[in-house]
Specification:
The complex is a heterodimer of chains A (353) and B (577).
Chain A: H1 9-62, H2 69-86, H3 96-123, H4 131-150, H5 159-177, H6 191-233, H7 251-283, H8 292-311, H9 319-342
Chain B: H1 7-12, H2 32-38, H3 45-56, H4 59-73, H5 75-78, H6 86-95, H7 99-105, H8 115-143, E1 159-166, H9 170-190, E2 194-197, E3 203-210, H10 212-235, E4 240-247, E5 251-253, E6 261-264, E7 276-287, E8 298-309, E9 315-320, E10 325-327, E11 330-340, E12 342-347, E13 352-357, E14 361-362, E15 369-375, E16 382-390, E17 393-395, E18 401-403, E19 412-420, E20 440-444, E21 453-455, E22 460-463, E23 468-472, E24 488-497, H11 501-520, E25 524-533, E26 536-545, H12 552-565
Antiparallel strand pairs in B: 1-26, 2-3, 3-25, 4-6, 4-24, 5-7, 7-8, 8-9, 10-11, 11-24, 12-13, 12-23, 14-15, 15-16, 16-19, 17-18, 19-20, 19-21, 22-23, 25-26
The chains are: A mainly alpha (353), B alpha+beta (577).
Protoporphyrin IX containing FE sits between chains B (22-23, 26, 57-59, 62, 66, 124, 127-128, 131, 218, 221-222, 225, 515, 518-519, 547) and A (305, 308-309, 312).
């Protein structure tokens, strides 16, 4: 590649990265407006729901869920939120701002994909061989998984989280992690680079979704508790957190969805662990040596195993397991940032100095 | 949307055969009172033991131990570990002379073999075994038991559909009911369900259960974890690793004597190593050319070997990064490489007293390398040389030298000269890479009267004090250009026999397969019941999730639709709910 030319493929890639960041930022704004408007809508819906309540109450009782009357309002809302969650694409709620947000996210994704592919072509290898490239590809996969999941579930209420996260990570990457293209170090010349790192990024994306859902689950559970308490004491409406929560699925539904993403992420993470060990056995002469990065991969695996257990343990389902999912994802991010940058170990491939 | 069964509806379902055994505090379990009974304090020693065992094998204990394991693993990434980074530990002791011994007392430099870390995982695995064995027994029985009796009131289940079919008369209705249940039974069996008929009078029903694989997967997963631990523990005893250095043109033999270091597992027979020999013919490496991105970065390392198994013809072999060489069950890894300048020392009369290629240890990526020469005999006094080899010597701004590029562009060796006592006669083993100068006098080098000796390949210099001469031999083959090949290279190899790795992989793959089944195979029960009511038949479909099963409602709906469509009688349309 001619070094003198201003428009090297790599500089095109950088340009595309910044364009993608700008578009994601706009998507974030659109999604934020959407949440605000959901909040306003929720008030109207609640009025309508109050009228409807008697009818629904009967339905709920007929369905065999014999709850106290105070929980029925919540349950009725939850039923609405859950069916919206599962609604096929054609029959989703018409949320103009969410649509704008999603369209912008798709656009940003295309630029992002372009940036990743041009970087790969410029380097002549898979674009995940140093920290800059891991982050570029990792964030791309987060958006890809989010967009893919939208085909199945209407998770547009996670749009602010996803676009916000990606803007921060990708922006930080472009500013702090940028590394010139250099040839691969010998230990990285392996098919396991392609597999191990890709699958690790994929599970990160799934854990991110699970994390966001767990956070919402906690917020929703808090709102449900407060609503129930307010209903019971008949002191009138209490402050129950952001209003958009009312348009979202129930805490239970959010929890089981978070769980589904977490277990898929866990499978991929297990695979990451095994693939890493196989690679280490070829490259370093042992499959496991408690190198810092290995330690953290193990810690994260055990944390998510704990999360899955917690979901099956009486007294831990609900809020406590949600906290484990949050801690798990925090460890994932910690592993990617702090451990890569500051911890000494054999995985010295960040390309930063 | 289906939810895992809530506790009250579990109680509502009669279960002649409970499908899976769960620890008492499983979220889906309804046996809370049972464990409370055992906790009664009036029990004797056996009772307490039982109680303790029950606590240890409970879900809650397993969970707490898992979380403890995660937390306990963290310090090992904060403090250097003897296993992974012994030099880091030495460095840590030097940098923190006060703190380090305290941390050492807490085993923080050996976290993963420390008593507290071991205690956590051993307890965890005891808990695991205690949990898995009774469940395996139970599952074994469940696998050959019949699916449970059809509940009396299917309408109380999570997922429930009803169809009412009109028949022409009562007799026809009875026939219709029989064929409806028979075809349901057939369909369910084809869909992988285990089925059983429960007919009482005018009510015919089929009870079906599928997804035993879920529990099988769970048990396989947990058992495979034990397998991994055992493989690591037992296999480790038969495992050894050893290091050696081979200089170009030299041969190394797989005997204890030829290793520079050797770490055998407990059960390794050190005298029984399989004999074979390796000769390093040539070491190849490429460096990114100057003036490009990443200039000087090394890559494409290849150690070209001639391998010789006992009683066989020699063969050629290569060791590369990521591609170890297999020899007689050993794996040979390329761990490092460097230059080994060939130095010849003659006494004042011209007699050769030392002539060897001396491996110099690389200190930076440009291969500035440190080396030591010891001449114990042949000269009036013992002589020690210590100094650097620069493949491409260049001055630093400080006036000192460093190598500016890792290939042989301007190779220079620079040596300080000491005379006196090398300290190698006392029987204390000394590293060949360090020179103990405490009993020696410096004759050349900084601070001495004579400057350090500087030699390029092919040059000879006088040793100070009339000791003799030293020659830096040029090893380049005839016709080589520049300094190409003027200095020999060496490789450091690591030789491993790992008896555990294969087993660990087998168990890890088993665990993953088990995990996939345990997490994604839905375990569900389905019932189809036909009740004759006059000249109509009421057909009910019901499903019950056993554990996480998001697709249950769809599955029951689909089954009901297909089953209904396949029935004779008037077309569907009489749906009630
Ligand atoms: C090394 C320690 C352990 C690890 C890493 C681990 C990991 C896991 C994982 C990943 C799952 C989810 C997959 C599945 O459902 O099969 C699971 C489930 C389960 N584990 Fe463990 N486990 C461990 C120890 C234990 C122990 C000691 C017990 C008994 C107290 C136990 C009991 C269970 C049970 C009952 C389930 C099924 C949960 C359900 O119904 O969804 N595990 N375990």
């Amino acid at each position: 590649m001619p070094e003198t030319s201003v428009f090297t493929l790599d500089s095109v890639s950088v340009l595309l990265v910044w364009t993608a960041i700008a578009i994601y930022a706009l998507a974030f704004v659109a999604y934020a407006v959407d949440l605000a408007r959901r909040g306003a809508m929720a008030v109207e819906v609640k009025d309508a729901a109050a009228k409807d309540a008697r009818v629904r109450e009967r339905e709920v009782v007929m369905a065999g869920a014999g709850h106290g009357a105070s929980r029925d309002a919540v349950a009725a809302q939850a039923l609405g939120g859950e069916s919206a969650l599962d609604a096929p694409i054609g029959r989703r709620q018409r949320l103009v701002w969410a649509r704008i947000g999603t369209s912008l996210t798709v656009l940003g994704f295309l630029f992002h994909l372009g940036a990743d592919v041009t970087r790969g072509i410029a380097a002549g290898r898979v674009p995940w061989s140093n920290m800059y490239e891991f982050a570029l590809t990792g964030t791309l996969l987060i958006v890809a998984v989010y967009l893919a999941v939208l085909f199945r579930y209407d998770l547009r209420f996670l749009g602010t989280f996803i676009t916000g996260l990606v803007v921060v990570l990708l922006g930080g990457t472009a500013i702090w992690f940028y590394t010139d293209i250099v040839p691969l170090m010998d230990p990285l010349k392996s098919v396991w680079l392609v597999i191990h790192v890709f699958v690790a990024s994929l599970s990160t994306a799934l854990f991110a979704l699970a994390f966001a859902l767990s956070v919402l689950q906690l917020m929703q559970a808090r709102r449900e508790r407060k609503t129930a308490a307010a209903d019971a004491s008949a002191t009138g409406p209490a402050k129950t957190g952001p209003r958009f929560l009312r348009t979202l699925p129930s805490a239970d539904a959010l929890e089981s969805l978070a769980y589904r993403f977490a277990i898929i992420g866990f499978i991929f993470w297990t695979f990451t662990l095994i693939a890493g060990a196989i690679w280490a056995n070829d490259a370093w002469g042992r499959y496991w040596g408690f190198d810092t990065k290995e330690v953290w991969t193990f810690v994260i695996w055990v944390l998510y195993a704990g999360y899955i257990h917690a979901r099956a343990t009486r007294g831990w389902r609900g809020a406590r397991s949600a906290w484990l999912s949050i801690i798990g994802f925090t460890a994932v991010i910690f592993n990617f940032t702090i451990v890569n940058m500051f911890f000494k170990g054999l995985h010295a491939y960040s390309g930063l100095s | 949307m289906s939810r895992p069964l809530s506790d009250d509806s579990t109680a509502a379902v009669p279960e002649p055969v409970e499908g899976t055994l769960r620890p008492d505090d499983h979220a889906d379990g309804g046996r809370a009172e049972a464990s409370d009974d055992v906790a009664q304090p009036a029990l004797g020693a056996i009772g307490w033991l039982r109680w303790g065992w029950r606590q240890l094998t409970s879900m809650r204990t397993a969970l707490v131990l898992l979380l403890l394991l995660a937390i306990a693993a963290v310090p090992g990434s904060l403090v250097p570990q003897r296993g992974a980074d012994p030099n880091g530990v030495t460095q840590y002791f030097n940098d923190n002379p006060d703190l380090a011994p305290i941390l050492d007392g807490l085993s923080l430099f050996d976290v993963y073999t420390s008593p507290w870390f071991s205690a956590i995982y051993i307890l965890l695995f005891i808990s695991l075994v205690g949990c898995v064995i009774p469940r395996t027994k139970h599952h074994w029985k469940a696998l050959r038991a019949k699916p449970p009796r059809t509940p009396a009131r299917l309408s109380r289940l999570d997922v429930h559909r009803t169809e009412v079919i009109e028949a022409t008369d009562d007799a026809d209705a009875a026939t219709l009911a029989t064929s409806a249940v028979a075809s349901a039974q057939q369909h369910l069996r084809k869909n992988g369900y285990r089925v059983a008929r429960y007919d009482t009078g005018r009510t015919l029903s089929v009870s079906a259960e599928r997804g035993y694989l879920r529990e099988t997967g769970n048990l396989v997963f947990h058992a495979a974890l034990v397998g991994v631990l055992l493989a690591v523990g037992i296999g480790g005893g038969f495992t050894y690793t050893g290091q050696t250095v081979i200089i170009e043109g030299r041969t190394w033999v797989n005997t204890l004597l030829d290793y520079t270091s050797f770490n055998p597992g407990r059960f390794v027979d050190e005298d029984g190593l399989t004999p074979y020999a390796l000769t390093l013919d040539r070491f190849d490496v490429t460096y990114q050319p100057l003036g490009t991105e990443g200039a000087g970065q090394a890559g494409d390392f290849v150690a070209n070997l001639t391998t010789q198994r006992a009683g066989e013809a020699p063969e050629s072999g290569k060791v590369r990064v990521n591609h170890p060489l297999e020899m007689e069950g050993d794996r040979i890894y390329l761990m490092g490489n460097g230059y080994a300048p060939t130095l010849t020392i003659r006494d004042a009369d011209g007699q050769v007293v030392f002539s060897e290629s001396v491996p110099f240890l690389p200190q930076d990526t440009n291969m500035t390398s440190l080396g030591v020469v010891k001449v114990p005999d042949g000269l009036p006094e013992q002589v020690g040389l210590v100094g650097f080899f620069y493949p491409t010597q260049a001055p630093l701004s400080t006036g000192a030298f460093a190598s500016a590029y890792p290939a042989l562009v301007n190779p220079v060796v620079s040596l300080d000269v000491y005379v006196g006592d090398l300290g190698i006669d006392g029987g204390i083993p000394r590293s060949v890479y360090t020179l103990d100068t405490s009993e020696m006098e410096k004759l050349a080098g900084r601070g001495a009267d004579v400057d350090a000796l500087e030699l390029a390949p092919g040059e000879t210099a006088e040793l100070p004090g009339g000791l003799g001469t030293i020659t830096f031999e040029n090893e380049a083959p005839d016709g080589a250009s520049g300094y190409d090949g003027s200095v020999k290279r060496y490789v450091s190899l690591s030789i491993h026999r790992d008896a555990a790795a294969g087993w660990v992989l087998v168990f890890a793959v088993l665990a993953t397969a088990g995990l996939l089944a345990a997490l994604f195979v839905p375990r569900r029960r389905m019932w189809v019941k036909a009740t004759v009511e006059g000249h109509t038949v009421r057909v009910e479909y019901a499903g019950l999730a056993r554990g996480e099963d998001p697709a249950l409602a769809d599955a029951v709906d689909q089954f009901a639709q297909r089953h209904r469509a396949g029935l004779s009688g008037p077309p569907p349309g009489a749906r009630v709910d």
